[in-house]
């Protein structure tokens, strides 16, 4: 559950702006550099275009926040408005000039986006990581700063353990944060990817994925407890089949005969395996 914004940052964002609200200056857009600590990487083109059209008619109602830099100004808050102003063909934008440290700018950029729910889970996780690294915050301190619960911060940051391909699925909303978290205990990156693809293809719930991952773990633990008597080639084939089907597979051989056991955990899971085997009803 989200908490209220930390007192220090709340004052930074609101009180100071109100106090200096009359100190608005028009600045050339070409003199404003982007915020180097901006956590948001994706800006929806259609929404930007719509904002640009609105700016053409009504202008920029809320000034941008900048600080002075060696050459011109550095943006603190208002990147969407700045981008939309460029699309609208504006040469100048209204700004309020502030004196902020790098740490304050990092925090403000994150808070601005969190308040507007602009960040996808991966952008949020990376922003938390940078803040902790740059400011030496603990997760508890960071949670208080950004007005989130500590478990929320912990769970979001765990997504950074995932392979880049799966991070991209989360960033584009192809895979939910709940599904992504369920994949973290899977140690094999190839198997993580296969399971992620199965989730998307068969529209698994988070519970279905968690159960599949749990059964895979149980299967591995059971094998660890058994005496290693299988020939190496069969162990290798078991691993390859497990990766292919995304579930537990055992090859049991006696003399010249044997059998292959493929585990499934629901009717949907069975259908998924049959589809892989290209077996129709």
From TrEMBL:
GO biological processes: chromosome segregation; positive regulation of sporulation resulting in formation of a cellular spore
Domain ParB-like N-terminal: 25-114
Major subcellular location class: cytoplasm
Pfam families: HTH_ParB, ParB_C, ParB_N
Domain of life, per lineage: Bacteria
GO cellular component: chromosome; nucleoid
Transmembrane segments: none
Localisation per UniProt entry: Cytoplasm, Nucleoid
Gene Ontology molecular function, alphabetical: DNA binding
UniProtKB keywords: Chromosome partition, DNA-binding
NCBIfam families listed in its UniProt record: parB_part (TIGR00180)
UniProt family annotation: Belongs to the ParB family.
Listed name of the protein: ParB/RepB/Spo0J family partition protein
């Amino acid at each position: 559950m989200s908490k209220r914004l930390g007192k220090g940052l709340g004052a930074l964002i609101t009180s100071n702006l109100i106090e200096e609200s009359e100190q608005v200056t028009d600045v050339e857009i070409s003199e404003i550099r982007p915020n180097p600590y901006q956590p948001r990487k994706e800006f929806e083109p259609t929404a930007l275009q719509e904002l640009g059209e609105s700016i053409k008619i009504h202008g920029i109602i809320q000034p941008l926040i900048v600080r002075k830099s060696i050459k011109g100004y550095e943006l603190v808050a208002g990147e969407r408005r700045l981008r939309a102003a460029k699309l609208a063909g504006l040469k100048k934008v209204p700004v309020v000039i502030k004196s902020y440290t790098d740490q304050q700018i990092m925090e403000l950029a994150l808070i601005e986006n969190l308040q507007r729910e602009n960040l996808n889970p991966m952008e949020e996780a990376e922003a938390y990581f940078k803040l902790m690294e740059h400011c030496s915050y603990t997760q508890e301190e960071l949670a208080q700063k950004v007005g989130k619960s500590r478990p929320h911060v912990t769970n979001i940051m765990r997504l950074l353990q995932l392979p880049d391909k799966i991070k991209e699925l989360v960033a584009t909303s192809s895979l939910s944060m709940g599904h992504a978290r369920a994949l973290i205990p899977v140690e094999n990156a190839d198997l993580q990817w296969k399971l992620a693809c199965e989730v998307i293809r068969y529209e698994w719930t988070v519970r279905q994925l968690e159960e599949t991952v749990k059964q895979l773990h149980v299967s591995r633990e059971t094998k660890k407890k058994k005496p290693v008597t299988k020939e190496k080639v069969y162990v290798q084939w078991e691993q390859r089949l497990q990766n292919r089907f995304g579930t537990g597979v055992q090859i049991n051989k006696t003399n010249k005969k044997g059998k292959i056991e493929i585990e499934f955990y629901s009717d949907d899971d069975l259908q998924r395996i049959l589809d892989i085997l290209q077996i129709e009803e």
